[in-house]
Amino acid sequence: MSSNAIQAKAVVCRELNAPVSVETVSVGPPRAGEVTVRMAAVGVCHSDLSGINGTIAFPLPVVLGHEGAGVVEAVGAGVVGLEVGDHVISSFVNMCGRCRYCQGGKPHLCEQAAKSGFTLPDGSTRVTDAAGQSLSLFSGCGVMAEVSTLHADNLVKIDRAMPLDRAALIGCGVMTGVGAAVNTARVQPGSVAVVFGCGGVGLSAIQGCRIAGAAMIVGVDTQDQKLAWAQDMGATHVLNGARQDNIVKALRTLTGGGADYAFDCVGIGTLTAQAFGVLRRGGTAVVVGLAPPSDMVSLRMASFIFEEKTLTGSYYGSTRPRLDFPRLIALYRQRKLLLDELITRRYTIDQAQEAFDDLVAGRNARGVIVFDEVLRAAGGK
Ligand SMILES: NC(=O)c1ccc[n+]([C@@H]2O[C@H](COP(=O)([O-])OP(=O)(O)OC[C@H]3O[C@@H](n4cnc5c(N)ncnc54)[C@H](O)[C@@H]3O)[C@@H](O)[C@H]2O)c1
Ligand SMILES: [Zn+2]
Ligand SMILES: [Zn+2]
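Above: the input record for the complex with zinc ion. Below: its predicted structure, written as tokens.
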């Protein structure tokens, strides 16, 4: 490890279904094309939990975190457009800008991203533990740490006036949810939408539907507190799925014949089937939640033909980060995108396990780990 490596605390998953460990790691300086970021805040996303419980397979040990914002600390050779002191949001899909997907306007499907799911694009990482062992990076980010060295293609520069704890949420949950509605489904004004699952992602999908002008937005969850938050975010109606014998029938009745759009923001095959089931003719169901690899969905084939229904997935809200992140910040400033209200609780990095326990228990709209000192220095509240 280079002599100018930085010692920093990081949240590491060493063993599946075991508590995370908060440890001091050594973060190496950026090589060509890379950037070291002093993190200000990182959201606690269900996908991090999916790394801990094995739904998403990462080589362990892995530094968690893929929803972060911070301040550039050092810039490697050849990096264009980022300087020390710049404020950035992490983007959990590495985007090369050159492949057929990037060139085709779908950079979230970039070929380079497949090579950097748990490392930097060159196949290595800059972070080692106290014993000198190299650690993987969650989605090429590993930003649940005081300091992280990422590839420049995983960073988006933002306006310094944007508070970094709220900016962090744009890095995953908010972009994923809003983008599923606005970019993937292209929700139309006056339409009817149903959102299954009102966690950080689903609440953002509700906001995306509201921003796109949906006339009726139904939030479905199994916890009443989530439904109250859904209403705060723009749901015009809510239903507790745990109290319904036949949720599809209830939703078809409530919507007066079915929804134009339905979003599975939980990630369960049976819920995806329900989302497909509540669609009216010509409707679109969007799978946003990530199910375990073994989960399957069974659908009536004829519905694709006679009702011309669409079923699609949405990865990262079909984002083009350098276009979408600044747009989301602009919507936040206009009070059209609510971010302050999404943060239920802030944690220190030492409270990381508590943050995951709260996520499992469903206590938060979003929990955020905040690195106080940096946030103060950066001018955030
Ligand atoms: N598509 C993507 O690119 C992408 C990006 C980020 C997260 N995700 C996935 O999105 C999902 C949601 O993430 P999150 O951070 O919002 O999680 P979360 O845990 O905050 O929210 C999940 C919500 O679903 C609710 N729920 C659980 N079972 C339900 C059921 N049967 N019916 C209705 N509601 C139910 C929970 O009460 C909770 O409110 C996860 O699977 C996550 O991995 C996908
Ligand atoms: Zn690409
Ligand atoms: Zn996420």
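Notes for the reader.
Residues 127 and 248 are 48 Å apart (CA to CA).
The chain has a mean pLDDT of 96.
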